[in-house]
Each structure stands twice: as structure tokens, then as C-alpha cells.
Automatic annotation (TrEMBL):
Coiled coil: none annotated. The gene is trhO. It catalyses: uridine(34) in tRNA + AH2 + O2 = 5-hydroxyuridine(34) in tRNA + A + H2O. Residues 125-218 form the Rhodanese domain. This is tRNA uridine(34) hydroxylase. Pfam families: Rhodanese (PF00581), UPF0176_N (PF17773). It comes from the Bacteria. The lineage of its organism: Bacteria, Pseudomonadati, Pseudomonadota, Alphaproteobacteria, Hyphomicrobiales.
């Protein structure tokens, strides 16, 4: 059984180019595969390896000299896989750790309000709440929260056009969610910058919700698409192997 770590952190990394090679070496030394993106705005990725290797890797990111403590608050969701979910390792430097608007929107400038998974259900019961699934259409089709709006996007960068077509005055309270939280941080900041007064995001995303909320209280319906060989996860982040890749795009 392999351990899979989905991770991200928005943090200033002006040395992203210089970090690429040592991060790749660290992964190869630990026989870790997957994809990691580095940018001036932070780090994002999903990797897999033996349990001890992943633990050593995360400790190196959070507390080792490579990042000098800048990733001490790294957001990580751990799950498992019976077969290797990645064929190889890719460590790349990009303009953004999630493609949106070329780095114009920064979550720190106009942040949305994160809501812990344990408090998410209460927020869903708020009258006149605009609940938005910020993921792409094929992801939404696999599973979502009841009542959530599907913006109908094919890629995350199209979400800006959806927001630009909304009237902030007509939506005084907004809540949004995504797979692991990273897209919501960008989307939430974008909405706040465009005049939406109250914007909430699901802290840790769908994965953290499925990981921590008991089955009896779980309002998620369907499965959660993940961008690796496992295709989809269900409650408690258990792999759901009954989805063919060609049916999901």
C-alpha cells in the first residue's frame, strides 16, 4: 500500500527556479513519484511513495533547510493507493501553482473566509446562500454537494468569466468548494476583489470534508475526482475504482 500526499501552500517563493533541482533530487532519493509545481506564489502537487518516504519528504518541506520554514503551514491531505497512481516524477516551475490569471490574483490580498469541514453543513443551511462548485464540468458530474451551482467550466481559468457575469449585490453570501482547497483560495480572492462582500470556502476542500466528517453527517453525493491513476475517492478517502478514465473528460 502506497501513501498519497496532496499538498499546497500559497507563500512567497522568489527562489522557485533555484528550488526545482533540489526538490526533484529529494523526491528521487526517496523514490517518490507524482507532480509538483513551484511558482513565486507557492507550491502545489500530489505525490506518492512508501509511507516512511512520504513522511520524510513532508518533514523536509516543513522543517528542513530547503524552504527555511516557509512551508511550516503546508496543507496536506493523505490517502492511500494499492497501485502506483503515477508513472513518473515531474517537478516544474510555472507562473502559477494553479492556472487562473497569470498571477494577478493573490489570495493574501483579498482572502475569502475559510470554513472548517465540521462547520460546513451549518453554512449550507444558510438562506439565500449562493453555493458554487468551482471545479470543471466533468468533475462536477461525478459528485457534488446538493444545491451547488455548476459554472460549466472546462478549465479553471474560465471561472473568471462566470464571476464577471454575477451581480455582487444579488449575492450577499457566497460559499464555494473545490477538491483540495487551492482553486477556492484563488476563486475566493477574485470574487472578493470584485465586490462580493461575504465569500466562504471549504477549508481543505472536498478531500478534507470526506476525510473528517462522519458518514452520518456527510452531505456529499457521488465521488470526488482526483487527478491521478485512482480516478475517484469516496468517504474516508477510499479509492473508488469503478470509473473508467475515458468517461470523465
Amino acid at each position: 500500500m502506497l501513501t498519497v500526499a496532496a499538498l499546497y501552500r500559497f507563500v512567497d517563493l522568489p527562489d522557485a527556479d533555484a528550488l526545482r533541482a533540489p526538490v526533484e533530487t529529494l523526491c528521487r532519493d526517496l523514490a517518490i513519484t507524482g507532480t509538483l509545481l513551484l511558482a513565486r506564489e507557492g507550491i502545489n502537487g500530489t505525490v506518492a511513495g512508501e509511507e516512511e518516504a512520504i513522511a520524510r519528504f513532508l518533514d523536509a518541506l516543513r522543517a528542513g533547510p530547503l524552504f527555511g520554514g516557509r512551508l511550516r503551514d503546508l496543507d496536506v491531505k493523505l490517502s492511500s493507493a494499492e497501485a502506483p497512481p503515477f508513472r513518473r516524477l515531474k517537478v516544474r516551475v510555472k507562473p502559477e501553482i494553479v492556472t487562473f490569471d497569470g498571477g494577478v490574483t493573490h489570495p493574501a490580498l483579498a482572502p475569502a473566509s475559510p470554513v472548517a469541514p465540521g462547520a460546513w453543513n451549518a453554512l449550507l443551511d444558510t438562506p439565500n446562500l449562493l453555493l458554487i462548485d468551482t471545479r470543471n464540468g466533468f468533475e462536477v458530474a461525478l459528485g457534488s454537494f446538493p444545491g451547488a451551482v455548476d459554472p460549466g467550466t472546462r478549465r479553471f481559468s474560465e471561472f473568471r468569466a462566470y464571476v464577471d457575469g454575477l451581480d455582487p449585490a444579488a449575492h450577499p453570501k457566497v460559499a464555494m468548494f473545490c477538491t483540495g482547497g487551492i482553486r477556492c483560495e484563488k476563486a475566493g480572492a477574485y470574487m472578493r476583489a470584485r465586490g462580493f462582500a461575504e465569500v466562504h470556502t471549504l477549508e481543505g476542500g472536498i478531500l478534507r470534508y470526506l476525510e473528517t466528517v462522519p458518514d452520518a453527517e456527510n452531505r456529499w453525493t457521488g465521488d470526488c475526482f482526483v487527478f491521478d491513476g485512482r480516478i475517484a475517492l469516496g468517504p474516508a478517502l477510499v479509492e473508488r475504482p469503478d470509473h473508467a478514465p475515458e468517461t470523465l473528460r
